[in-house]
Write a structure and sequence with these properties.
Elements (H helix, E strand, L loop, with lengths): L27 H10 L12 H10 L6 H14 L12 H13 L3 H8 L3 H4 L4 H8 L1 H10 L4 H4 L3 H15 L2 H15 L6 H21 L3 H15 L1 H15 L5 H14 L5 E6 L2 H11 L8 E7 L2 H14 L1 E2 L5 E2 L12 E6 L5 E8 H9 L29 H10 L5 H12 L4 E6 L4 E5 L4 H9 L6 E6 L2 E3 L10 E6 L18 H13 L1 H6 L8 E4 L8 E3 L6 E3 L11 E5 L5 E5 L3 H8 L4 E2 L1 E3 L5 E10 L4 H11 L3 E7 L6 E10 L5 H9 L4 E6 L1
Parallel strand pairs: 2-6, 7-11, 14-16
Antiparallel strand pairs: 1-2, 3-5, 4-5, 5-6, 7-8, 9-10, 9-11, 12-20, 13-18, 15-16, 15-17, 19-21, 19-22, 20-21
Helix pairs in contact: 2-4, 3-5, 4-5, 4-11, 5-8, 7-8, 8-10, 8-11, 10-19, 11-12, 11-13, 12-13, 13-14, 14-16, 19-22
């Protein structure tokens, strides 16, 4: 059967101190007896789900409970005779999972599917029966959480089950909500399993389920799962942490006093708020002890302040920072910049006059519901809310297809091998931060923290990103290996050459599975091209052509030899200045050239200069480009089409796929310079052309 179970009393990791405050625990023996006895009347709910109905009505007072009654009767009848390994009737498991979701505020459809989530997998009930009795929505969710058959997939059954579940989650996030609650109840009751099987289940929970709970914002499930996994995989550190918490319980806790002071401050300011102290869970205490060493009394919890409106959050923050000493480095605004998992709050820390430091979280009550239950608190996310809905209008509610889930669904199609999928899935979920970058066309890309321009290219263009030759980030040219930050604007430059492909070292900078899979596939399919990209950089290439006529500038100095400065290469109609240099020659510069100030500083004689009537001129242009085959030939051809003579050309060695070209050109007419520069910029791979 799908649920691993035991008597909770036999498993030390299922002790009550690991549970979140206020969460009731089922009496499985009483529940089992109620399940077997059934209802006392056909007109009332079965006794076994009375507490589920009560929790559901607390969040949804007008919910129709008749469908829950029908779902329970089908589940109880189909599971009748099946027992958990602890000896409890099997129906206690779907009931417990449903209660977890009901307490989080799940809507009726989710609870109905939760009661039925093991029927198709473990009984004779079919999906067609579920569809006929409860509709397509419930049928889809039940199918999404149903495991694939081991007889069909063998050792690949577990990764393929998760693949199926994730694909279903892409269409309905409630599938994963039920899976998380299912795993939580199984982890609570894991003690009768062999230690090696406990460890295997705990590792999968740590690597896959806990990151998914974090991404869906279901913190209430995530924190308890973390504690249960911590107890199984790190028993010694768990016992040390438990001893720390037990020792703290016997000491004076400064947080209640700080909370009283905060209440007084907010009351005097006329701000209606609820102030409570929230103890840290085990893993949180363990992490902060590793970070800070010796723990202070205020490190075992945080002060939580709940208000009505977003504006009240900032009003509370102002009062706290005015009446207490703020710890500036601890301030974070997740209201203005929400986390990728819907989380919104203000985080700060304040110090009292006695030197006690307390971490404080400020949020609205709606934010609190979403912070605890994530997508579960949003009800049915696929139902359009009423236009006049008063509550939550300002909240960020878009859970149906977050960026991380879209990326995951995209790359899993390119990973048909179960082992590759399983390995890459864990690596993807290990990324614990999400950033949003803006595309040049105004769209956005969701990427994991640490993503590079390469990842952005594959996220935007898919396999067409093989031809990416560079990027501009916030308007500045940068290498493809550059890491992106939240809020960056990225313009990706693609080559027009269909034969272009990624370099082997792109794999060193790609963070997303989609990019790594696509690059690896191309390199395997083009081994010769991959080898060519790793060749050593060439020495500078210089091309010198026939020298053209002299300068077309005239100085007001009889018989003086006039030459145009190579540093700024002035051309008509540039404003120019002339200076006498050694040998009596006059050098002509553009007036804004830095050399002009230097000439004047050393006392060089200034000479008036004018342009001749003739229009020909010599100019030096710098072309910045991305390296690719035939680039020099294409640039030279573009110059020749404009009727311009190449006096000399120099190509510097590539640096991070960027190449710098320097051309000294003889133009028949200075007015053609803008058109020449445009023609050079139009050559594929060239991103900038400027005067020297």
């Amino acid at each position: 059967m799908s649920a691993e179970a035991t008597n909770p009393e036999a498993h030390p990791e299922a002790r009550p101190e690991l549970r979140r405050r206020g969460r009731s625990r089922l009496d499985l023996r009483r529940l089992g007896r109620a399940a077997l006895l059934g209802p006392t009347s056909r007109d009332r709910l079965p006794d076994a789900i009375g507490h589920v109905a009560e929790a559901h009505r607390a969040h949804h007072p007008d919910a129709d409970l008749s469908i829950l009654r029908r779902a329970y009767l089908l589940a109880e009848t189909s599971h009748r005779g099946q027992m958990r390994k602890s000896g409890e009737p099997y129906i206690t498991h779907p009931l417990a999972v449903t209660l977890i979701l009901a307490e989080l505020g799940a809507e009726t459809t989710t609870l109905t599917a939760s009661l039925l989530h093991d029927t198709v997998e473990d009984t004779d009930v079919t999906l067609d029966q579920v569809r006929e009795e409860f509709g397509d929505e419930v049928c889809f969710i039940v199918d999404g959480v149903t495991k694939v058959e081991k007889i069909d997939y063998g050792a690949a059954a577990e990764p393929e089950t998760f693949r199926k579940m994730l694909v279903a989650t892409g269409n309905d996030v409630r599938v994963m909500s039920i899976k998380l609650a299912d795993r939580l109840h199984n982890m609570r009751t894991l003690g009768v399993m062999r230690p090696d099987k406990q460890a295997r289940i705990a590792k999968v929970t740590r690597d896959v389920l806990i990151p998914l709970a974090e991404r869906l914002g279901v913190q209430a499930l995530k924190t308890e799962l973390e504690d249960l996994v911590f107890a199984i995989l790190h028993p010694e550190e768990y016992e040390e942490t438990r001893a720390l918490i037990a020792a703290h319980a016997g000491e004076r806790d400064p947080l209640p006093g700080i909370a009283d002071s905060v209440r007084g401050v907010l009351r005097d300011a006329g701000i209606a708020a609820e102030v409570v102290v929230r103890p840290r869970h085990f893993v949180s205490v363990h992490r902060i002890s590793r970070k800070r060493g010796e723990l202070r009394g205020s490190d075992f919890g945080r002060v939580l302040i709940l208000v009505g409106e977003n504006a009240d959050c900032y009003a509370v923050l102002g009062e706290l920072h005015t009446c207490f000493t703020p710890v500036v480095s601890e301030f974070k605004d997740f209201i203005a910049s929400p986390k990728f998992n819907l989380y919104q709050s203000l985080h700060t820390a304040v110090a009292t006059a006695e030197g006690q430091v307390a971490e404080v979280i400020v949020r609205t009550r709606q934010m609190h519901r979403v912070a605890e239950a994530g997508v579960v608190a949003l009800g049915n996310p696929y139902t359009t809310p009423p236009v006049d809905a008063a509550e939550g209008d300002e909240e960020r509610i878009d859970p149906t297809r977050p960026g991380w889930l879209s990326r995951l669904l995209d790359w899993q199609q390119s990973a048909p091998d179960p082992d590759t999928f399983w390995t890459v899935l864990r690596a993807e979920l290990a990324q614990d931060r999400e950033i949003t970058v803006f595309r040049a066309d105004g769209g956005t890309l969701g990427l994991p923290g640490g993503a590079s321009c390469i990842d952005a290219a594959y996220a935007q263009y898919g396999e067409a990103a093989h031809g990416c030759i560079g990027a501009r980030v916030n308007g500045r040219l940068t290498s493809l290996s550059s890491r992106l930050s939240d809020g960056d604007t990225v313009q990706l430059l693609l080559a027009h050459d269909a034969s272009s492909g990624p370099a082997a070292d792109w794999l060193d900078h790609a963070r997303t599975p989609a990019a790594r899979i696509a690059i690896s596939g191309w390199l395997q399919a083009h081994p010769d091209s991959a080898a060519a990209t790793t060749t050593a950089a060439r020495a500078p290439l210089s091309v010198v052509g026939a020298r053209g006529g002299g300068a077309n500038a005239v100085a007001d100095l009889p018989d003086a030899h006039v030459r145009l400065a190579g540093c700024c290469t002035p051309v008509p109609p540039d404003a120019v200045a002339g200076f006498v240099v050694r040998g009596g020659a006059v050098t002509v510069h553009r007036v804004h050239c830095p050399a002009v100030a230097q000439m004047r500083a050393v006392g060089r004689t200034s000479v008036a200069v004018r342009w001749r009537a003739t229009a020909d001129c010599r100019v030096t242009l710098l072309a910045e480009s991305f390296g690719r085959p035939h680039l020099l030939a294409d640039l030279t051809e573009a110059i020749a089409r404009e009727g311009v003579e190449v006096v000399s050309a120099t190509v510097e060695p590539p640096v991070e796929q960027r190449v710098r070209h320097s051309y000294t050109l003889q133009l028949p007419d200075a007015t053609g310079l803008p058109a020449l520069m445009r023609a050079m910029r139009d050559v594929p791979g060239v991103y900038d052309v400027s005067r020297a």
